[in-house]
Amino acid sequence: MCLINFQFQQHPNYKLIVAANRDEFLARPTKQAHFWEDEPEVLAGRDLEKMGTWLGITTSGRFAALTNFRDPNEPTEGKWSRGEIVRSFLTERIEAEAFLQRLSEDKAHYPSFNVIVGIADSLWYYNNRQDQIVSIAPGIHSLSNAFLNTPWPKTKRGKQSLNNCLHNKIIVDTDCLFTSLRSEEQAADEELPQTGVSLQWERLLSSMFIKSEQYGTRSSTVLTIDRNDCVQFIEQTYTNGQRTAEERFHFSIEKK
Question: PANTHER family from the xrefs (predicted)?
Fold first, then answer.
């Protein structure tokens, strides 16, 4: 993922509301959201190159989502796939905080990353640069390719658009969330972060929805978990900036 906007434990009808975009090279093979054949409890898209994923949930309510930390100068050859982190959390039974403590021991094996793991009642954040395990507080948050709630233009815009879509709404307006995720508005040059890429790329990457010849937004996901533990998972997929498919899933979390 490259943008995860979410509201946690601050809505009268929902424990968790997520609106997220996955940005990736267009040539990277991907399967859209589905219940995995080899792990039937897991609902997620799948990277067919490394067989991991960027965001998913299980029928028992385990949730995880990941973004890369943008550092074009970081050596990555020989390191482990970051998508394996999400896959591992979703398929194991270990508690979130213990999972992150174990992940911290292997932090040097991965390129820089951010990850959110947990259940709708308790979410945790970790990145292998700061190496701190953080319990996420109730509220509206946004994660892109820096640290959680770093005030980049796209994260500030993401939090504001999420707030606008949810304001005074008892039932989530998923169309509003998807519309906001498709925003191609780029930040002014003076607002751009300096992450080591060219000015042209900083401009391109500053919008919530990204379109270019080789790289861009491949999918958008809206996930909600209400106070009765009913899950709604909607994924829209894109090819060259045009929506090509939509998958919808509804289920109740199985208590174990």
Answer: SER/THR-RICH PROTEIN T10 IN DGCR REGION, TRANSPORT AND GOLGI ORGANIZATION PROTEIN 2 HOMOLOG
